[in-house]
Amino acid sequence: MPSYDSENVFAKILKGDIPSFKVFEDDLTYCFMDIMPRSNGHCLVIPKTPCRNLLDASPAQLAACIATANKIANAAMSAFSADGVTLQQFSEAAGGQEVFHLHFHILPRIEGKAMGPAGVMGDMAVIKENAEKLKAAL
Ligand code: AMP
After folding, report:
1. Where are the alpha helices (DSSP H) in 16-108?
2. Which of 29, 94, 105, 128 could form an SS bridge with 68, CB 3.0 to 4.6 Å?
3. How far apart are CA 61 and CA 1, in angstroms?
């Protein structure tokens, strides 16, 4: 497996080199909105320390991310009047991964509504508002 690239886009977000719509952070994890949302309220949970994905993550990194995902998923249920949540994690390009810093997708879901396509830029005003809704629900 290739080694961790400290110039990946999420590493740059953690360093503050590029902006993000922050939802939550604690000592070990950071949560921010996905700018190409596949459902309303789609956000990402990442560890603050480097690892590519599920394959090289430590149990501590995984546990911290899942604990934060649990918190965010419950907030998303109320913030977006969701009926459920889809949790996604892709490892390596063949697994569908595009950004090589471990991340968990949290996708609030509405009964009967399909997820949107990947790679479509969202409306930044709506994404910003959704970050505020999640923060208020936390
Ligand atoms: P994947 O690596 O396939 O699990 O997905 C990477 C995710 O990161 C995609 O859902 C992208 O929309 C999202 N993404 C890429 N760049 C940014 C960014 N600068 N801010 C927020 N989300 C991003």
Report:
1. 59-79
2. 29
3. 18
Over residues 118-128, mean pLDDT: 98
Catalytic residues: 103
Domain boundaries, the chain: 9-137
Q: Does residue 39's CB lie within 6 angstroms of at least one atom of ligand 1?
A: no
Q: Is the CB of 79 under 6 A from ligand 1?
A: no
Q: pTM (2 decimals)? A: 0.98
Q: How many CB atoms lie within 10 A of CB 70?
A: 14
C-alpha span between 36 and 117 (Å, rounded):
9
What is the β-pairing status of strands 29-33 and 43-47? antiparallel
10-41 pLDDT per residue, tens: 999 999 999 999 999 999 999 999 999 999 99
98 lines ligand 1 (CB under 6 A): yes
Q: How far is the CA of 28 from the centre of ligand 1 (A)?
A: 20
